[in-house]
Amino acid sequence: MRFLLRRALFYLVTAWAAITINFMLPRMLPGDPVQAMIARFQGRLSTDAIASLYVLFGLDTESSMLSQYLTYWGNLFKGDLGLSFTYFPTPVSEVIAQSIPWTLALMGVTTVISFVLGTMIGVYAGWKRGSWIDALLPITTFFSAIPYFWLGLIAISVFAVSWGAFPAAGGYEPGLIPGFDWEFISSALYYSVLPALTVLISSIAGWILGMRNMMVTVSSEDYVTVAHAKGLPEKRVMLGYAARNAVLPSISGFALSLGFIVGGTLLVEMVFSYPGIGYVLFTGVNAKDYPLMQGIFLIITMAVLVANLLADVVYLMLDPRTRKAA
Amino acid sequence: MTPVLEIRDLSVDYGQGEGAVHAVSSVNLVLNRGEVLGLAGESGSGKSTLAYAMTRLLPPPGIITGGEVLHHGRDKPAPVDVLGLSPKQLRSFRWNDIAIVFQGAMNSLNPVSTVASQLEDIYRAHRPEMSRAQRTKRSAELLRLVGISADRLGSYPHQLSGGMRQRVMIAMALALDPEIIIMDEPTTALDVVMQRQILEQMMRLREELGFSVLFITHDISLLVEFSDRIAIMYAGRIVEQAASEDMYRASSHPYSKGLLGSFPALHGPRRPLTGIPGSPPDMRSVPSGCPFHPRCPSAFDVCEREIPVLEKLSGTNGDSSRSVACWLNTPSLSGHPGVGAT
Ligand SMILES: Nc1ncnc2c1ncn2[C@@H]1O[C@H](COP(=O)(O)OP(=O)(O)O)[C@@H](O)[C@H]1O
Ligand code: SF4
Ligand SMILES: [Mg+2]
């Protein structure tokens, strides 16, 4: 427990630092987002509106940095991340709330599938070294070596453009109204196949290789030999003794990769114009939409920290040796 | 004395073809019912390989290239060749008939499972008819047998000291009341006091339960003390076999003599530490003829050319259980008087 408290404290301090940096960064960057905004609305904004924009965006030079900082924290606790420039006047929190379910559904599910499937293949490949499964490894490694951007574009040109089997862009059939009805869900599933498959193909090799190598290492451990010597069924030795130990490094890797879902989804959603948070970030960056970028970076940071804490907790549960301090 | 395990002409290679390492070459060894047979030899002489091979636990690239391992079961009419068992028969043979306490005492226990779970695994696999309560009860009994309190059942290996871990391994070995227990350097990682305690306890248990022990070590002073008979291994071959007393008082093979000289005796008369000059052979290129000849103080011309075979020593005060592989004992070749030659 003491261990966990210490870790939690560490993550809290990290979160504070990240949030503070998040506050500072846009204020130190060159360029004036309100000017960009004015250019966008092409003179259709009154001077009054412009002044209120400066205040709204927290770029009001009148008030001191400290009071801006305190206001920033106060707003943060209210869940108020400011207004988005790009989707003006929608609040950033609303933009994020609308886009993040898409990312979680696509990347979350894909990451879990990739981990589970990759680890299972890795367990088997490591246990049955030199079997036909080993022939699979160069293929998966090849796909994971292709930059994701290319992989996505190739998939689109082959399966969407040439073959026409899957849509090239978007999250659902244009014109459908998002809701919990079969027509919409099936359309969303259909649209997610291509991005999900490309993510799976490019990420699974890592899990397979990691698990396979750990299985090979662990298989020559004395306790595995003892398990064989005890005459236990092969499956019990493979899972209860070898895989149970070999999976430990992968587990923390998995928890961390869950944290990188939000941050790592940018490329995928850019390639497939998928309506998730990555795509929103992409548009936000193009429009110098600072409140939006800040909001998303905050989410990314929090996700990584929470994932780290999760990794600690899971490790603590799975490896009794780390419980020593408890 | 009736044999319980008979190793016949067993050979083991690591790798195949040109680069193969002949780690064990034509070993013949008999373990009798109820005895402690000691197996000694320098590190790398093939002791562990022999133990792994006879239990079919050889890790790749190890391959058994020939021989038989005959098990004379307690209530079986005819001996069975362990090397010919089907996977299912092998699983049942393991631990039921032969249990092993390994060299890697520290890593023999699964770090993520409790002592109870690892003990009960044995019963789940071999005695599926036992209830959970029976398994727990029996596991607690086993721990008590090796002097560990039953509340350690819920401990993880890292919570136990090295000595306790090895006791747990011994308890585990006793789980199915096997006829044979192989102990491969069971106490190497422990301090001298702990070594002694554990071995003495093991011998008490052996008297109580009546299993046979193949006790492997490179520490010949422990062997002399704890075994009934001793076999000495060099470069994958057995070079001498004798009753423990005879081996200690009057070993015949020059290598045995050197080995006995290189360890201070714990009890009994002190002997000068002579040791063996040179280092163990590289098993990838074993010397021709008698593999010991480059280090042997008594080597002569034949030794370089011909491999001496293990032969019963004749003419010793009625003791026929003694055999040696050395040309010195072939008087026609060496011109020496044979036994006891120096
Ligand atoms: N996995 C392996 N691969 C190749 N050679 C091995 C392997 N394990 C052992 N050997 C060889 O077999 C010889 C005997 O090793 P081992 O049986 O462990 O000796 P001991 O137990 O007497 O110290 C060693 O000299 C080594 O060269
Ligand atoms: S055969 Fe020759 S070399 Fe080998 S031990 Fe005997 S005397 Fe020494
Ligand atoms: Mg060894």
From TrEMBL, chain A:
<protein>
    <submittedName>
        <fullName>ABC transporter permease</fullName>
    </submittedName>
</protein>
<dbReference type="Pfam" id="PF00528">
    <property type="entry name" value="BPD_transp_1"/>
</dbReference>
<feature type="transmembrane region" description="Helical">
    <location>
        <begin position="246"/>
        <end position="272"/>
    </location>
</feature>
<feature type="transmembrane region" description="Helical">
    <location>
        <begin position="100"/>
        <end position="127"/>
    </location>
</feature>
<comment type="similarity">
    <text>Belongs to the binding-protein-dependent transport system permease family.</text>
</comment>
<feature type="transmembrane region" description="Helical">
    <location>
        <begin position="292"/>
        <end position="318"/>
    </location>
</feature>
<keyword id="KW-1133">Transmembrane helix</keyword>
<keyword id="KW-0813">Transport</keyword>
<dbReference type="InterPro" id="IPR000515">
    <property type="entry name" value="MetI-like"/>
</dbReference>
<feature type="domain" description="ABC transmembrane type-1">
    <location>
        <begin position="100"/>
        <end position="311"/>
    </location>
</feature>
<dbReference type="InterPro" id="IPR035906">
    <property type="entry name" value="MetI-like_sf"/>
</dbReference>
<keyword id="KW-0472">Membrane</keyword>
<feature type="transmembrane region" description="Helical">
    <location>
        <begin position="189"/>
        <end position="209"/>
    </location>
</feature>
<feature type="transmembrane region" description="Helical">
    <location>
        <begin position="148"/>
        <end position="169"/>
    </location>
</feature>
<feature type="transmembrane region" description="Helical">
    <location>
        <begin position="7"/>
        <end position="25"/>
    </location>
</feature>
<keyword id="KW-0812">Transmembrane</keyword>
<dbReference type="GO" id="GO:0055085">
    <property type="term" value="P:transmembrane transport"/>
</dbReference>
<dbReference type="GO" id="GO:0005886">
    <property type="term" value="C:plasma membrane"/>
</dbReference>
From TrEMBL, chain B:
<dbReference type="InterPro" id="IPR003439">
    <property type="entry name" value="ABC_transporter-like_ATP-bd"/>
</dbReference>
<keyword id="KW-0472">Membrane</keyword>
<dbReference type="GO" id="GO:0005524">
    <property type="term" value="F:ATP binding"/>
</dbReference>
<keyword id="KW-0547">Nucleotide-binding</keyword>
<dbReference type="Pfam" id="PF00005">
    <property type="entry name" value="ABC_tran"/>
</dbReference>
<dbReference type="InterPro" id="IPR013563">
    <property type="entry name" value="Oligopep_ABC_C"/>
</dbReference>
<dbReference type="Pfam" id="PF08352">
    <property type="entry name" value="oligo_HPY"/>
</dbReference>
<dbReference type="GO" id="GO:0016887">
    <property type="term" value="F:ATP hydrolysis activity"/>
</dbReference>
<keyword id="KW-0813">Transport</keyword>
<dbReference type="InterPro" id="IPR050388">
    <property type="entry name" value="ABC_Ni/Peptide_Import"/>
</dbReference>
<dbReference type="InterPro" id="IPR017871">
    <property type="entry name" value="ABC_transporter-like_CS"/>
</dbReference>
<dbReference type="InterPro" id="IPR027417">
    <property type="entry name" value="P-loop_NTPase"/>
</dbReference>
<keyword id="KW-0067">ATP-binding</keyword>
<dbReference type="GO" id="GO:0015833">
    <property type="term" value="P:peptide transport"/>
</dbReference>
<feature type="domain" description="ABC transporter">
    <location>
        <begin position="5"/>
        <end position="260"/>
    </location>
</feature>
<dbReference type="InterPro" id="IPR003593">
    <property type="entry name" value="AAA+_ATPase"/>
</dbReference>
<keyword id="KW-1003">Cell membrane</keyword>
<protein>
    <submittedName>
        <fullName>ABC transporter ATP-binding protein</fullName>
    </submittedName>
</protein>
<dbReference type="GO" id="GO:0005886">
    <property type="term" value="C:plasma membrane"/>
</dbReference>
<comment type="similarity">
    <text>Belongs to the ABC transporter superfamily.</text>
</comment>
